[in-house]
Amino acid sequence: xxxxxxxxxxxxxxxxxxxxxxxxxxxxxxxxxxxxxxxxxxxxxxxxxxxxxxxxxxxxxxxxxxxxxxxxxxxxxxxxxxxxxxxxxxxxxxxxxxxxxxxxxxxxx
Length: 109
Description:
By secondary structure, this protein is an alpha+beta fold. It has two helices and three strands. The chain has helices at about 15-35, 40-65; strands at about 75, 80-90, 100-105.
């Protein structure tokens, strides 16, 4: 397989790794199809679908992290919003689960 070098923005390394694994799965399907091994092709087809979905999830996760803003005021579609505070809260019923900080945002100020 030819080597390709690309510059990847910081934080997207995992997405590139997942994409690389997906391409390897696709190559197995190409080889399977060319040799008449339809079972290998079908397995690769399913693996490529799963890999693309994982890559998409990772990219969207990274994009959404960019929206995690901690500021006293923010603009959303031209409307100013004020932060009203953070408080610790548990998710789920398991007392051993981690406790993230929930954020509240007050509607237009």
